[in-house]
Amino acid sequence: MAAVVILAGGKSRRMGRDKLMLTLDGQTLLETAVNRFSDMFDDVYISVADEEKYPDISGRRIVDILPGAGPLSGLHAALRFVPDDGVFLVAADLPYSCPSAALRMIGLCGEKEACVIRLPDYRLEPLFAYYKKSLLRRCEELIESGEFRMSELLNSADTRFIGPGELGELWDEKMLRNINRPEDYDLLISC
Q1: Residue 87, Ramachandran bin (φ over 0: left; ψ between -120 and 50: alpha; else beta)
Q2: How far is CA 31 from CA 6, 25, 34, 50, in A?
Q3: Residue 1: which residues within 8 A CB-CB, separation 6 or more?
Q4: Nearest 5°: CA angle at 52, between 50 and 56?
């Protein structure tokens, strides 16, 4: 079993305002992510740095235990808190993220500790990936050493790197497009 953990702890510096409160089809980006993944996963959590943030969004919260390490803090808290064997981590600012692709990635992980998409240009998207509980201690070690890059965790773990083709018909180039800047949002709402 795996829970979905939606990362909602960022500061939205490049956007200049809280990007998760931007709307798409009448819902905020955060609401959209929670609703989309709740349709296919029984356990959906919202990872936040501040428990009081987003009081109008329903959903169970996971608060950073070791704050200040960005998404790695969220993953660490999720692996410690969630009782499942692992968590599928998804950034709330990926408006085209696909729950069916998440389920396929969990299945593709097999005996590995993590499963992440490696794009043809070798970029990884660690904020749409599956992580097993066995990585909890490694997350702690990285945070304690001041190394906060998710890629460092993936490269030091027994990771299954998959290509987009392994997702078959579920793959869509938009799936990993995130909303960081005002122009990203303008493009999203103009489509």
Answers
A1: beta
A2: 10, 11, 5, 17
A3: 43, 84, 85
A4: 125
Domain with 41, as residue range(s), is 2-190
122: region left, alpha or beta (phi > 0 left; psi from -120 to 50 alpha): left
CATH of the domain at 168: 3.90.550.10
Strands (DSSP E) along the chain, which ranges?
Answer: 2-7, 23-24, 27-28, 44-48, 60-63, 86-91, 114-118, 124-132, 159-162
Q: Which ranges of 82-131 would DSSP assign to H, the alpha helix?
A: 99-109
| CB of 20 closer than 8 Å to CB of 92 | yes
User: What are the beta bridge partners of residue 63?
Assistant: 48
pLDDT tens digits, one per residue of 50-107: 888 888 888 899 999 999 999 999 999 999 999 999 999 999 999 999 999 999 999 9
Count Cβ atoms below 10 Å from residue 53 Cβ, excluding itself.
16
Give dist(CA 155, CA 92) in Å, integer: 24
